[in-house]
Amino acid sequence: MQISVIIPVYNAAEFLEKAVDSALQFNEVQEIVLIEDKSTDNSLEVCQKLIVKDSRIKLYQHADKGNHGAGASRNLGLEKANCEFISFLDADDYYLSNRFEAEKEIFKEAKIEGVFGAIGIEYLTEKGKEEFQSKFKNISLTTVNFPAEGETVLKGLLGLTPTVFGTFFHLNALTIRKSALVKNNLCFNENLRVHQDSDFITKLAYHCYLKSGIIDKAIAIRGVHDNNRITKIIRYSPQYNQRQFLLWKSLYDWSSTNPLPLDCKRKIYLTYTSFDLSLKTGLNKYFCIFLEAIKNPQIVKTQYRFTYLNR
User: Fold this and answer.
1) C-alpha distances in Å from residue 90, one per residue of 52, 182, 261
2) Domains in the chain: ranges and CATH
3) 78 contact partners, CB below 8 Å, separation of at least 6
4) N or C: which end of the chain has fewer CB within 10 A?
């Protein structure tokens, strides 16, 4: 395997070298693509020192040297990456020594276009730990609950499998054939400043044949600290609902132009509608009704819904 590791860099000077070193340990990693996104700390200087350290490390910035977000930075990384396989790594996280063990075997099967695994957690600050655990309880592993491949992955991510599939697998634990991304014209939605990873993974699970790798133990570690954006938003707050609405609108617009299974279209539509209604009315009562409708679609019988599903 020849792998390009894409690392978007924004205000991660404190963590970046550890992330890069964790990728350099693998002979399969032929290049590490750093995309510096106009950090306000000294991340750019750290990047410039790292590219001298190893010829596999390459540094890029956006054409205007501006800040464009993680989605745009990953897209630039995809444009610059030269290897057959693509992996991602957040600048404040790191790979473990078993990161590509499953991939080396699974990708021998030609139909497999992507492999995903589990990531663990390292608490870097006490405040970060408190915020993370208040939102996600005491979750030690971000993973799925059972091995899956093909359409089961898509349905699992949308909560449509008989057994709960689990959380979204993290980009840190995903490896994908670049040819599959090119063939399906897949990239990150740059209009989403958050949740662009969830959007990308859902679309990827439909267009590409994914298979689970190591899901019972971590292959990478997420660093949890004071500045993790994922822990800052209170669930069902106006800001949370706005960000969820943008995610599900992106998925709804996409699903409207692709022949997804009917139950997948229904789930995406109902979730999108619930957040849309919540924002328009500001009434959690109606939002909760639609959340219940997502679990039990038969209770929702609006003409608009059936018009959409039958077209």
Assistant:
1) 21, 22, 32
2) 3-231 (3.90.550.10), 238-310 (no CATH)
3) 6, 86, 178, 181, 187
4) C
pTM over 0.90: no
Query: Could you read off the pLDDT of 35-91 as tens digits, one per residue?
Result: 999 999 999 999 999 999 999 999 999 999 999 999 999 999 999 999 999 999 999
Residue 236 · residue 282 · CB < 8 Å: no
How long a stretch of residues is the chain? 311
Distance CA(290)–CA(151), nearest Å, equals 25
Read off the pLDDT of residues 154-180 as tens digits, 9 standing for 90 and up.
999 999 999 999 868 899 999 999 999
258: nearest Cα among 202, 296, 301: 202
Closest CA to 170 of 104, 96, 240: 96
Q: Is 306 strand, coil or helix? A: helix
C-beta separation of 149 from 113 below 8 A:
no
The strands making up 94-95's β-sheet, listed across from edge to edge, are: 94-95, 218-224, 118-123, 141-142
Whether residue 212 contacts residue 144, with contact meaning beta carbons closer than 8 Å, is answered with yes
Pairing of strands 210-212, 218-224: unpaired
